[in-house]
Amino acid sequence: MKILSLSNGHGEDAIAIQILQQLQHHSLAPELAALPLVGSGVAYDRAKIPIIGPVKQMPSGGFIYMDSSQVLRDLRGGLLGLTLSQYKTIRNWADRGGKVLAVGDIVPLLFAWQSGAEYAFIGTAKSDYYLRGDDRQWLPQTSQLQRYFGSDYLPWERWLLDRGRCRAVFVRDELTAEILNRKGIKAVFSGNPMMDGLAIEPKPRSLLEDKTLSILLLPGSRMPEALANWHKILEAISGIINSFQDLKLVFLAAIAPGIWIEAFAGPLLLRGWVNTDLNAVNSPIQDRDAVVLTLQNAKIILSQNSYRDCLQLASCAIAMAGTATEQFVGCGKPVITIPGEGPQFTYAFAEAQTRLLGSSVILVPNPDEVANAIATLIQDRNLIEAIWANGKKRMGDPGAAARIANSAIESFAFSTPILG
User: Fold this and answer.
1) Residues 130 and 232 in one domain
2) What phi and psi, each to the nearest 5 degrees, are found at residue 313?
């Protein structure tokens, strides 16, 4: 058996790789290949998964769907020629009996259908939580047109999922699986691969431990937007220090690799923070390259090498990010978020994130409101318990990549042949 992975974004590449690595260890391990439809596929190269067709980094960086003004730039950059070449590569794979694993949204799904091969789909972008609450009722923001369509997966997308060659459909939460099954699509929720490798505590965790409050800081990963987000987060930190002078405050800033970390330390120094020797503080993370600064009753640790440690150790987060926010919610912990100026993390993005992730994400209008939100979380034990349960429901348990890989193999290996 041969399986080609199609994905259309950095996050989708990462999820696809986790599943492909599980397929490599399966007793029926197939021959694997990849074709990232967006970007140059660096992550596949690092994972030593062969890329079989043409790839190219487009000017939009993959955000063509979020900013229509980027379309012309991508067309001038050779988007049409690249797409045609990729289509021919996928058809050739299918003609030689290969299967297709489409990861992302309608773009890889459409390529998979057009290939003529049997395919499985892993939907990462869509969720019926954008439209409905836990009670399955429509949210106030849901338009009449969306209610008419009945699902976040639109009729043409459902048509692609309902073809005989579509052997399996994996979605990002139980609600979406339930709604699609009502529509006649045999969709399943096997968990979210982005939770693999993260430990979920067996019970809700108090925000305070020994009068210490540990807060994760997530400014995002794309410059210069991440730095603009950082300045908003620093305003929130000032309010927290003023509000909780009787607590020991530990801020764990997870800064994306490849970003100049001094750009984040500089604004702290201008605000009166003092550079501190890492060996002189009791750092909760293992990162020799971390930058530590102190101010009054607070210390802040900037790290680019201990991302998962930061997620595990913090009890709440101030986040202006996508995937990392979802992972932290999946750990059963609360997130406070502030709208940014974009281009990615705008008010619309943040508001949609609250619908996707439910009560685990608290959207405040400005940085001054963050301290009040934290005070509420400290005082309301029932809210913390509800957030813990909500995180598990929305994101699922770790181990999803292995479960999806096993199901995909079974769907391809033991499916009924299509006649004609």
Assistant:
1) no
2) -85, -30
